């Protein structure tokens, strides 16, 4: 494919968004809005609007407590190589073996805002699917081992008993080391976190089974997630 520039009008907003992403890509620990403004030639209102949009689509994560923005793991959904994180390479290097051992399709999910996005799968047609993080084993594994700000954002729409139940589930997942949920029809889904620095969840691998003893299948999945963690 030619690298020549195509004729026609351009979108300044797209170029500006990539300027912001470039700056954040150079600062993995995240930047405050005023720090971003020191590095890009944009009005404050424009930069703030771009950041809100990038957060909405999962390209950027906003840590409200720290007031910082950083590149979101959801960016891996747009790159089959995921060179920045190595997630896809590590996943594909062991997913076939995991699938063979479990006898079920295996998927890789990342947290994008308050949703989970499945960015790779082995054993079923390739597709990217996004759903609320609290509503799946994969999402709950990510929330349990994610940051406090991410948990707070996911819990914000829930109140009373519902919120307390979800908090208790996340605490149990942190102790057990993996998440499990009953499927609507029959069987179970399991998810184990892939950890990054300071033990925070970068991604989660998951598999569903039609059996009646899901915890007996957990060791292999947890072992696969631990192997991915070591490879990153």
UniProtKB/TrEMBL annotation:
Residues 67-232 form the IclR-ED domain. InterPro entries: GAF-like_dom_sf, HTH_MetabolicPath_Reg, Tscrpt_reg_IclR_C, Tscrpt_reg_IclR_N, WH-like_DNA-bd_sf, WH_DNA-bd_sf. GO terms for molecular function: DNA binding; DNA-binding transcription factor activity. One of its GO terms (biological process) is negative regulation of DNA-templated transcription. Residues 11-73 form the HTH iclR-type domain. SMART domains: HTH_ICLR (SM00346). Keywords: DNA-binding, Transcription, Transcription regulation. It comes from the Bacteria. This is IclR family acetate operon transcriptional repressor.
